[in-house]
Amino acid sequence: MTSSPNTILLAGCGHMGSALLHGWLKSKLPLRLYVLDRHYQPPAGAPVTVWRTLADIPEDFRPDMVVLAVKPKGADAFLEALHERLGRGLSHATLLSVAAGRSCANLAKASGGMAVVRAMPNTPAAIGAGTTGLYSAPDVPPARAALAAQLMKAVGAVVEVPHENDLAAVTAISGSGPAYVFLLAELLEKAGQHLGLNAETAKLLARNTVYGAGEMLHEDPLSAEQLRRNVTSPGGTTEAALKVFMAPDAWPATVERATEAAAHRADELSQ
Fold first, then answer.
1. What is the architecture of the domain spanning 6-166?
2. Is 71 part of any known ligand binding site?
3. Coiled-coil annotation: which residues (predicted)?
4. pLDDT tens digits, residue range 121-159?
């Protein structure tokens, strides 16, 4: 038995919105896709209806889910305008927000009372390798919470959290996490050049090492700690480096302080 298609309105098709849409188009999910964006151009033949402005949306349009991918600063104003346009047409819709720093309470108020699911994806979603933290408010129907998870799984892994304030920790670890990894690659490149390698060689070594280690973490069931130990021969080169990285005032303390700072800022932005 084939499921009835869900009607999805994607509001905003920038980097994250377009990544989501690309994932949905590749998936086999039964969806009717509508995009609200001034500039998005769909691929030829793509089963997507594009509207440029709110005024282009038919007043009798009835979405099952509105995916909010606009900039956080404009989220409230957009939702208020959408509610003004569609009114009761949103009464059975669920809001899936990927706008960082906007709480369920704020989003529900701005949208005229929609049930809200908050998602915290990260930038590797652009290549289908994202990680998303997902929180569903208590008034979200289970079927809609499941649909939200399916939509985000189209661009990577999904972790559902039981409390909204858990999203601050998600932001600190996976939401901001790619930047930490990119910084490591950047610093390894610079260190390679400091040790005498040319820039292109240092870049290749650093990037492929990060990529390969990431693949091992993804594919190997061993813990990260055990994988680290497997590389570390007693008295060897890796152990010499790790003694520096793992000094009490080095990585163990720095990573904890850095992620606490990110989580604290995520809490502030959600107020």
1. 3-Layer(aba) Sandwich (3.40)
2. yes
3. none
4. 999 999 999 999 999 999 999 999 999 999 999 999 999
